[in-house]
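User: Run a structure prediction on this.
Assistant: Running it now.
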Amino acid sequence: MPQDPIPDDLSTPDALLAALLDLRQAVYEEGQQTFATWRNRIQRQRFLPGALNLAYYLALRRRDLRPLQAALVPWGLSSLGRLENRVMPNLDAVLATLGNLCQSPPANLPPRPRLSLFARGERLLSDSSRAIFGPEPSERRVRIMVTMPSEAADDYDLVRDLLVRGMDCIRINCAHDTPDEWAHMIAHLRRAEAETGRTCKVAMDLGGPKVRTETIFTPLDGRLRVGDKLLIVPGEPRYSTEYPFQASCTLQEVFQQVKPGQRVFIDDGKLGAVIESVEEAGLALRITAARTQGERLKPYKGLNFPDTDLQIPALTAKDIADLDFIAANADIVNYSFVQEAADVVELQDALAARAPAGKQVAIVLKVETQRAIHNLPELIVTAGGRNPMAVMIARGDLAVEIGYQRMAEMQEQILWLCEAAHVPVIWATQVLEQLVKKGRPSRAEMSDAALAERAECVMLNKGTYIRDAVTILDDVLRRMADHQLKKTARLRALRSWASDE
């Protein structure tokens, strides 16, 4: 869609007003056109304001607004930097004030928006978060989701302790354990809720079509170094002098879709490689990234193909079987490897066929791939049109897929897009990881945990010190709630430098 350039000369209020009026008209028209293409997919009336605002936001952000932002600041007007959840009211408010400054006839301007419109987006996002994650905890806005270890099926005290310390949602990964063990975890939670008076939601992760190493064949040293060869095979590895390092792959579809020259990352990027050839025996890789001392090749580690547009069904046969349990017992289903709108529809139909009458399971879209990022607006509209929904920034796989240097940038953009749609976000992967695993946090991960105030929920993985991690995260989020609300700094009085007088 063509974009109208913002004029270079914005030094006068009249020029600024004219540019803003043109921008507002273009955003309105383009937003309406986009919304019209979405409308027939939206059955939930509550989602309509978010979808319309998202359409306006996408139209606005197709343009480079930086010259306009800089021109607005000297006149004491909003620089449009925090309008995600209220695009048109924010633009109209600036126009109304600038029009008064220019003494422009009111007939030439949109009416000044009602004050209630400025709080509506925040209220709708809060309502969505409450519908998915339950009521807000005392003194903090952001919920805490905790991944259950296998021992939670037998250890009631662990589940109760996590709930008392601040857990708002348990996460059960269907890639591990069995329905019997999942049922025990949930039973422990319900008992703890009854004893403590606290409420907690149940989220369950579909395993999805994860591409992983399986059987490993390595020399005695077992370490791959830069320049080494690795053969990924569709069957069982066999001894070969040309390829002493071999690994089988869990997903056969990969072998028909990759091409020479494409990159492969193994074990969350610990090993980087490039495909040199696609042979009958398998994929011949050359290692391009590893530590000097080398990296051990291990079974059941993730394989990422960031340059390959893998066409793989998002729901596996196991996922469909697991949905019988999920639909009956969970409040939320976390959807792994979702990439396009058709994937969402498939899950929605499967849930609708299984859920008890009157129950609607919330859907969390796990953004893990470049295709998911590209299709995110369509994914949001499709999911939100029928189900309560949220988005999880799955930073582990996503960082490998897009490159670590782009992770912070993309994380921000996902947060903005979701806020525009009034959709909650889950901040996930390696949050307080060192604390959870080793009992002592790094300084960097404490800062990362504080940034989770930008989301509506933060997820912790399992580990020996998970109890301490929940306690510390609860404290961090309570403190940050006084200072930050999404992108907006909250100017609570600073007491660190207060006078003793």
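The two ends are 61 Å apart (CA to CA).
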